[in-house]
Amino acid sequence: MTTIAPAQPTRQTSTQPVMLAAFAILLVGVAAYLFLSRANLGAWDFRNNLWAPAHLLVGGRSPYLIESLFPGSNAVWMPTVIGAFFPLGWLTESQATALWVVISAGAYLSLIILSSGKARPAR
Fold this sequence. Notes:
The chain is mainly alpha-helical and 123 residues long. The protein has a domain at 41-115. It is 53% helix and 0% strand. Helix 2 crosses helix 4. The protein is elongated. The protein starts with 15 loop residues before the first helix and ends in an 8-residue tail after the last helix.
């Protein structure tokens, strides 16, 4: 004789935490957009050492002569990774600065998330 096992009750998952997280991400995204679109971010170090050399480089000019863009200014150092940053030169200064802030904030957030992981086992 064959026995039929009783049906297992199905577990319904709540979509409320997912919707709450999606709403929070959307809210943070809108707030970041509003802040970055209206903010006048003054980032002298970024402007003189990353954006200006990259902007001059994509324009076919010497990246060492940023005084042509900002009279009385000079680059403190010329980054050896200018090749990685040269796409920022195609953007305006304010667009590149806003993008740099977003990338930096994402890097900091990633660092916090990665460092708050599981504890290592004791040796």
